[in-house]
Fold this protein.
Amino acid sequence: MTFAARLAASVLALAAAACSTVDPGPNFVVPDEQFDADFFFCRVEPELLIAKKCGPGEGGDNNNCHFNSSAVSGMALAPHPTVDCADGRPTNRAQIGAGSAAQGNLQAASLVMSRDYTTAPLYLRPTGQNHPRTIFPKEDPVVDVIRQWAQK
């Protein structure tokens, strides 16, 4: 092996040895992304999950795939009475209390949401990317509801 080849091998070995992982420390936690719950209950759930028949709807529609946990493995939703809203806020907090079906739906949707809505499965999947069928096109007005929720 020539001197230049040994030198190059040594430099590569040193560079590889210099690469290491970063220790996040003993108290490392992944930040829990919080999205506006009121906006979810008054806009996202009725205009996306119910209107687009993703989840439980009124009238017994069989297209409510996410209501059937055996039909979908992700974002399982639970039926609950429509949340009463006025001025963009739920009027009866008992409808959305801890442990309620409404809270479960918020949590399920939040897990597939992102601040960059264009990378969020809540946007990508129903627009036909990695989903059994297209629920709505990328130009649908409900996309603006998803975008707004990402900013709240």
About this structure: The first strand starts at residue 85 and ends at 86. Residues 40-150 form one domain. The mean pLDDT is 80.
